[in-house]
Amino acid sequence: MFSATNSHRSRPLLGAAICLLLGACTLQQEQKRAPEQLASAGSPPAESAVTDASEPETRAFPIDAFYTLLVAEVAGNREQYDVALANYYFQAERTQDAGVAARATRIARFLNARRAALRASQLWVQLEPENPEAQLAATAELTLAGDLDDALVHARKALALGGDAPLQSLAATATSNRELTDAMLPEFAQLAEQYPDNGEVALAHAMMLRAAEDYPRALALVRRVQEQHPDNQDAPLLESHILVDQGKRDEALALLEKLVSIYPDESRIRLQYARLLIREDLDAAQREFTELVKQHPREANMILSLALIRFETHNYSEAKPLFERLLALGEHESAAHFYLGGIADRANDTDTAVAHFKQVEPGSDYVPAITRGTQLLATSGRERDNSNWFAELRQRHPEQSEHFYLMEVKLLQEHDHQQRALALLDQAVREHADSGRLIYARALVNERLGNSDAFERGMRKLLQQDPDNPTILNALGYKLIEDEERLDEAHKLITKALELRPDDPAIIDSMGWVQYRLGNHGEAVKHLEKALEKLPDHEIAAHLGEVLWVQGYRDRAMQVWRDGLEKNPQSKIIPAAMKRLQINESLEQHASES
Fold first, then answer.
1. Where are the domains of the chain?
2. What is the DSSP annotation of 128-181?
3. Could you tell me which residue, 57 or 392, shows the higher pLDDT?
4. What letter does residue 248 receive in the DSSP assignment?
5. Are residues 208 and 175 in contact, defined by beta-carbon separation less than 8 angstroms?
6. pLDDT value for 73
7. How far apart (Å, rounded) are the C-alpha atoms in residues 56 and 51?
């Protein structure tokens, strides 16, 4: 029989399966009915009182309903679970039989078919409202669906019927939102008062109090549960969380260490202990995760945690087989490839590293994998391989085509392939004619290559698209400062940019520089000092120092340049400014003379 609650494997007891699928009906009694009687039975009659308690109540099913349910069981035996669920749910709605609805609910929950499980559980609880299991199932599915008000209604009924209710799950969902927590906290408090000896109710109430940051009351509740139910492991786990919230990490660690010694095979406790140790003691955390992986050698999350710890502690030789185990399990494959790529990278095995990086799928590691992989190829002079990789990425993710063009351009520029970057951007702009990012990038490459006219054409095109863009206005205005005959035009563009973004240090610097070129040295110093105060940048320092030097404030100028070089020793802009001013002495010489 296909079991929806215990195992993925079926049992070949078809006779027993038929008995179960018919709920209150028995196989023997149904077999005594002639097929024509079954065919004419129509809808199942209303339940009648059972006159003989020794005989199970019977109901008649239409023959096609019987056949459909039999097909469902056979499908379950053959592990065709979707067919089994579809048939059960269809007949649950058609026959309005509580037993069939219960079976449909259990199968749907077993398969994590959430929508079907919700509908089936609601039908089951409607048909059998006094069944605590039905109320529990409805509570659980409504909680997963986010319908917490209705879930709480069914939880109350389940408790009133003497059954259980997944109130901790309900509380966990409610605590995801502070407003929801505040709204539902009184409901949980009322339940806790109504059922003072129910550990599940008390812990759910404690979870709500913790979310409301009422830690003393939450802690008192979980400790009371531990006194009433000493074998309840949820209570001390929740206590450890509350202690951490209160900043009592040492107490939490001591509690968990004690629990691990009492329950060495209880993975949840050891896992909580190991997670808490990660911030305190990586070596100790590694020992705990090692034990967890021994206990659960196929549990992917634990394997990944241990592998990451070993990677972070540079224990690559022991991390590598763990990542490889994840690949064998088919779990966390992208993460495994990413870190295996990192291990190969550290071993200077470029081919293996790139092969792993290429297998990382979209996610948090995707762009870092592409970035590092392409950097490795570029460093080893394999530009064609890089070009093919980026082309493949653009084909695979056309919606991200612009982004991958820009990544490739940046890589080319980092390796001083400006002409190739320009050719690539020409191709990119042909494909994405209205892309402001690509047009802007191409304009900047043209500017670096000295193609001033092409730079200006790109900026003018961008301003046609967005005439009030302060970045574009400033970039074009700053470039025009180089042309003595276009200083007024440059000033106009930078003025507009500054009006749009008055606190931007780059634009303030541009205004100071254009004022200097216009001969307004006082205004220039005022803007440049303001810009340098907002952003201690070597280019701004170069400008301010030059203006001060020309004004005759040479000690101040040398100090500004010296400070600029301390912040950016590799600066070429400050020495270029000094050379342009024909300053022959070094900064060190000037400092000694001062």
1. 1-128
2. -TT-HHHHHHHHHHHHHTT-HHHHHHHHHHHHHTT----HHHHHHHHTTSHHHH
3. 392
4. -
5. yes
6. 54
7. 10
Tell me the residue type at 147. D
**Residues 528 and 512 sit within 8 Å (Cβ to Cβ):** yes
Burial class (CB in 10 A: 0-12, 13-18, 19+), 98: buried
Unique residue bearing structure tokens 């990490």: 249
Calculate the alpha carbon distances from 133 to 85, 161, 412, 520, 556 in Å: 19, 10, 64, 85, 83
User: In which band, very low, low, confident or very high, does the pLDDT at 83 lie, cut at 50, 70 and 90?
Assistant: low
Residue 330 falls in which region: left (phi positive, over 0), alpha (psi -120 to 50) or beta: left
Structure tokens given for 173: 């969902």
Question: DSSP assignment of 480-534, as one string?
Answer: HTTSGGGHHHHHHHHHHHHHH-TT-HHHHHHHHHHHHHTT-HHHHHHHHHHHHHH
Contact 22, 30 (CB under 8 A): yes
| C-alpha span between 520 and 540 (Å, rounded) | 17
**pLDDT average, residue stretch 22-48:** 32
DSSP string, 41-89: --SPPPP---S-TTS-------HHHHHHHHHHHHHHHTT-HHHHHHHHH
Decide: 274 and 285 in contact? Cβ < 8 Å: yes
Q: How confident is the model at residue 96 (pLDDT cuts 50, 70, 90)?
A: confident
Alpha-carbon distance of 483 to 463, in angstroms, equals: 20
Extended strands (E) in 290-417? none
For residue 348, give the amino acid letter: N
Mean pLDDT of 283-311: 93
Which position has the token pair 């982004």?
A: 403
- Asked whether the whole model's pTM tops 0.90, one would answer no
Question: Alpha-carbon distance 492 to 486, whole Å?
Answer: 10
pLDDT at 581: 86
pLDDT band, residue 545 (cuts 50/70/90): very high
Residue 211 host element (H or E): helix 199-211
With beta carbons less than 8 A apart as the criterion, state whether 456 and 479 touch: yes
The pLDDT value recorded for residue 100 is: 83
What does the pLDDT average to over 58-85?
A: 55
In 3D space, the residue among 374, 413, 368, 372 whose CA is nearest the CA of residue 392 turns out to be 374
Q: Cα separation of 270 and 285, whole Å?
A: 10
118-127, 153-162, 455-464, 580-589: range with lowest mean pLDDT: 580-589
CA atoms of 99 and 80, how far apart (whole Å): 21
